[in-house]
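Aim 2 progress update. The chain analyzed this quarter is reproduced below.
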Amino acid sequence: MKVGLKFEVQARMGALGRAGVIKTPHGEIKTPAFMVVGTHAEVKFMSAEDLRAVGAQAMLSNGYHLRGRAAEIAAAGGLAVYSGWHGPTLTDSGGFQVMSLGSGLGKVVSMKREQGVVNTAHKERLAKVSDDGVDFVDPFTGEPEFIDPERSMQIQCQIGADIHMAFDELTSLADSYEYNVEALERTMAWSRRSLAEHLKHRDDLGYRQSLYGVVQGGRWEDLRRRAAQDLASLEFDGFGLGGAFLKEDLGEILRWCNEELPFEKPRHLLGLSHPDDILLGAEMGADTFDCVAPMREARHGKIYTLDGDINLRKFAGDDSPLDADCDCPTCRAGWTRGDLRALWRSGDLAQKQQFYNLASIHNVRFIVRLTEQTRAAMLDGTFGDFRDKFLKRYMH
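Predicted structure tokens:
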């Protein structure tokens, strides 16, 4: 009998927080944990060796972007082997990418604003949502495509990550309560279809692949609780916490969801990595996190430090370390703020790429280390003190 995902809670923190271990066919994930995003089966400007050097435990890739290579990845033995990472992996369903084309193009998923947000006119959209699935136009090829829960699961099972996400409809801050009711009904139907199809293919690559249902419902408590209850009644291996909402609503939304979800199954908070979001997410019962921000912001000169984020543009000739308390390979090698700024502003492509590598290593290690410290504080019962001291220094 093939064994897939197992989750063990090792310590509890408050009503919802916990530290644990997710066991997958390709290794363990000690939670809370940050999953580094390798959209196309690799993390931009970071090698698998770099990921291991910063303490990364898992990599998230994208089912939508990898759909054209799914058969090739399957033939190689699955995502962990194909990528060269060889550790735990997760794929999302591609629903976010498809929805951002249509229902749509111009949807706002930012947590920072709400007023004046409108969806694009239907004639301008590249995707159309129906109960069957999503018709869309590939923005790169211009060719029409269709994806539904069954196709999403077939693609993900070929890619062969340890953990997959069910196909769901992402709503935006501009969508009404009434539309969220409609979208949630569709997402629940798609969740059941996703689960049924996944069960047919989860063992195709010789190891058990697992599936998370995704909790939607916008910013409304009744919809979030209903979605969590309905998903909890199905045989999902864990749950994704998704959706677009205002930053100040994060804690409440997670509480609503996680009070309803089964405590013994893991939960992944999709698309967030800011330190205060991770600390709040862990306190409210999220186990794993992912976001492209640490790498993307690094490439734009934004460097994370314990005393707050800095922009390297201001540090020409500065011989101080990136962060005096950092243990990342970049800082251990003695690279300074001025050094990295010089590489970044260089007209030489090789030097610029070296900057992308060094800066990404630093930022990813910063977030990974935060989750390691959060876990340690949960295990020894000092989370509250750790959280308060960290945020007082970081957010000063």
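The mean pLDDT is 92. The domain at 6-31+63-291 is CATH 3.20.20.105 (TIM Barrel). These observations will guide the mutagenesis experiments scheduled for the next reporting period.
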